[in-house]
Design brief:
There is one protein chain. The chain has 469 residues and is mainly α. The chain contains 20 helices and four strands. It has a two-stranded antiparallel ribbon. The longest helix is centred in the middle third of the chain and has 31 residues. The N and C termini lie far apart (115 Å).
Length: 469
């Protein structure tokens, strides 16, 4: 073993401006990586000799120049290619799910609302404080689960009464669904109050309010999108496609002849692109509606979740999809007879849908842009390569789906007596004896109409007890 050298001396002051300071690790590493550079000398002669020897023994690969950083054009090109590839992937997946059946669309909507909720909650989270409050994130997800239980339960009970209300296990959950949901929420509320800690009040209440805002803007509106799907695939696909095509048309018109800025939140949006997209979206809506109305798979309610585009659905179409006769008197030809034409009322309704998708829905995107600027983030997340987060792509879809549901329920939906509605009325409004009388009366009626054999009535008459007088 060699003896340690005691004659090594360190420079205390030199012309390099360190003034007696010992060289840092970074300075030493810089000297090792650049042996021939004219930088400041911080070592004695022996150290320089070792450094020069190390430079001679380096492999040729380490002497090669570092790769040049990508130019702005190359970065934009790679982003464009990635964005384009994932756009086609999303379009293919969307159409595959739509043709596979309503249940797959419901699964996609569920996944979208969960990921969107996660992204919106994340941008307002403060990790350093969340570490000291272990129940903060747990409460966020608890309130999400509670809201989904309530909203999904409302949809299932409304659209599938004929299944839920006749099941012995599901009946108690269906009849007391709202009370159960409320108690679940109260439990979370009490747990939140009990978890408040001194010094973190502002952060905890901010998270509480932010969570409820996210639940309203994402989960509640997603609930109506799911209801649109169950009312008929057209009420899901048409609003979604109008928003997507309007965004594409606005981009094309904007880069073609856009000059006037529309809103400061989105500097690239122009008035010309906004108006041009409105006109083109209306034309697209007319054409797409004319195609979708021809298939019952799109216009019929989802009375069978196992159906798909190839098996189809069967129903009596809503009158809004059937051509009707209209008369029109040209204002410049008052003496000529009125003109008669046939058109489905849905073609008039599509004017409203396309106008909302063009003039109002984009403000959902502007709202999201303002939110991102508030928290100084470019995107809500990185869920979709080249596109950012799910919320970045769905910001306009939420409000559009909400509008589609409200408009449909107000001006288009037909309120008829359904099997589920009759069963619900009989269960909640009649006693057991009265329900038996209803069964006996309906059986007798069906025998008289020739729908069932007389043996069925005799069998039921012998089994069912008679009503007490």
């Amino acid at each position: 073993m060699s003896r340690p050298r005691r004659s090594v001396q360190f420079q205390h002051r030199g012309s390099n401006g360190h003034h007696g300071r010992r060289p840092s690790i970074s300075e030493t590493s810089e000297g090792l990586s650049e042996p021939g550079s004219p930088g400041p000398r911080t070592m004695n002669g022996n150290s320089e000799h070792l450094l020069w020897s190390a430079s001679l023994t380096r492999s040729p690969s380490t002497l090669q120049k570092e790769p040049k950083p990508q130019t702005e054009y190359q970065k934009k090109k790679e982003t464009f290619i990635t964005r384009t590839i994932w756009t086609f992937v999303m379009i293919a997946g969307f159409f595959a799910a739509m043709f596979a059946g309503h249940i797959y669309i419901l699964a996609i909507v569920t996944a979208v609302q969960i990921v969107s909720f996660k992204e919106v909650i994340a941008i307002a989270n403060v990790p350093s404080r969340a570490k000291n409050l272990p129940f903060t994130r747990s409460l966020n997800w608890y309130f999400l689960g509670t809201s989904m239980y309530f909203l999904y339960g409302e949809s299932v009970i409304y659209y599938f009464k004929h299944i839920v209300l006749v099941d012995r296990i599901l009946l108690p959950f269906a009849t007391h669904h709202r009370f159960i949901s409320f108690m679940l929420y109260v439990m979370g509320f009490v747990f939140f109050v009990g978890s408040l800690q001194k010094g973190h009040y502002r952060f905890q209440f901010t998270q509480f309010a932010w969570t409820h805002m996210a639940l309203y803007l994402i989960n509640v509106q997603s609930h109506f999108i799911m209801n649109n799907t169950l009312e008929g695939m057209i009420w899901f696909f048409l609003p979604a496609s109008l928003v997507i095509t309007n965004d594409i048309f606005a981009y094309i018109c904007g880069i073609t002849f856009g000059r006037t800025q529309l809103i400061k939140l989105s500097p690239k949006k122009t008035v010309e692109g906004f108006v041009g997209a409105w006109i083109l979206t209306i034309l697209f809506g007319f054409a797409m509606t004319n195609v979708l109305m021809r298939y019952k798979y799109f216009i019929c309610p989802a009375n069978d979740l196992g159906s798909n585009f190839f098996t189809g659905l069967h129903c009596e179409p809503n009158p809004v999809f059937l051509p009707q006769e209209f008369t029109f008197q040209p204002p410049l030809l008052l003496h000529s007879p009125p003109r008669t034409f046939h058109i489905a009322p849905m073609q008039f309704h599509i004017l409203v849908f396309a106008s909302f998708a063009s003039l109002i829905a984009p403000f959902g995107g502007f709202f999201a842009s303002g939110l991102k600027r508030t928290f100084k983030v470019k995107d809500f997340g990185e869920s979709i390569p080249g596109h950012g987060g799910i919320t970045d792509r769905m910001d306009c879809q939420f409000i559009m789906g909400f509008f589609a549901f409200m408009y449909y329920q107000s001006f288009i939906a037909e309120y008829r007596a359904s099997v589920g509605g009759v069963i619900e009325t009989a269960i909640q409004g009649l006693s057991a004896e009265e329900q038996i009388e209803v069964v006996r009366g309906l059986t007798k009626y069906l025998v008289g109409q020739g729908q069932v054999g007389e043996g069925v009535f005799e069998c039921l008459a012998g089994v069912l007890p008679r009503r007490r007088r």
